Amino acid sequence: xxxxxxxxxxxxxxxxxxxxxxxxxxxxxxxxxxxxxxxxxxxxxxxxxxxxxxxxxxxxxxxxxxxxxxxxxxxxxxxxxxxxxxxxxxxxxxxxxxxxxxxxxxxxxxxxxxxxxxxxxxxxxxxxxxxxxxxxxxxxxxxxxxxxxxxxxxxxxxxxxxxxxxxxxxxxxxxxxxxxxxxxxxxxxxxxxxxxxxxxxxxxxxxxxxxxxxxxxxxxxxxxxxxxxxxxxxxxxxxxxxxxxxxxxxxxxxxxxxxxxxxxxxxxxxxxxxxxxxxxxxxxxxxxxxxxxxxxxxxxxxxxxxxxxxxxxxxxxxxxxxxxxxxxxxxxxxxxxxxxxxxxxxxxxxxxxxxxxx
Length: 358
What we know:
By secondary structure, the chain is of the alpha+beta class. The protein has helices at about 5-20, 35-40, 65-75, 115-130, 145-150, 160-165, 170-180, 190-195, 210-225, 230-240, 250-260, 265-280, 330-335, 350-355, and strands at about 25, 30-35, 50-55, 60, 80-90, 105-110, 135-145, 245, 290, 305-310, 320-325, 340-345. The strands form two sheets. The chain has a nine-stranded mixed beta sheet, sandwiched between helices. Strands 2-4-3 form a three-stranded antiparallel beta sheet. Strand 3 and strand 4 (about 60) form a beta hairpin. The longest helix has 17 residues, at about 5-20. The mean pLDDT is about 90.
């Protein structure tokens, strides 16, 4: 296993490469306000973050990643365009696998630029790929934006679309909702009991919800019960999309074929195609670069477009050596009314050294 000194030395080398590419070094605080992260991810974030409290600043978290604080910093007055790099520790609670690190070093590269998002995607991907040198790695790409476009184009209620969008990053829950909205599986028994009046509104209130909030929720569930089922054809097209796994050059043809029956994804497919051309311009072989339509859905929650990862070919047991993607929506949520296209990625120097045998 690499020592801390070796890991920090490799992190410094990687950050220097990103600085040479024009990135400004930044160092976000280790302690981050918990409220921001809870607003973004809900209570789920508590399961994977270290939480503490401060008498003056309230609830705080040891930073689980760098992207959120870097976006906050940029949206408070960063120049345009902007490129940032950083190196430091992040902290993740591990409740199931004691062998996975709860504290490790990340080195990142983030681009905030409006001119050509496809070129920015390719820039980040190619720079991170170059950081591996001759180390045998396997790259994987995807695009969350294509699935989002499908959901937006469904012939169903806005409430159902919102629920599906919210669970895009939870594949099992997404699938369960899709099956229920298509009428293939029944709703949860608790919902039927509530709508049938078996739960009395005269019962004593327990928890934080008021009677008005409970009544409003019941009204929403009743409206959902009356909504028509998703058409089998739409569900089949979503399933066909999620099954796409092929070299990028071939996947584009599959996506274009689907767009004939799913016009809602035409713009998103166009972005995938433009990105492939930008990658080719940076000498990335798109005939071997893999694309999976469902890639990144269980681990990349704030990404809403291009996603990518690199794994060690000789150590498939290890987590990805690098991950990244596009997070335009995150800049809108943290921008106070402003927004800017943004893409970035992180590398894990400790894992890289481990693969190299240090």
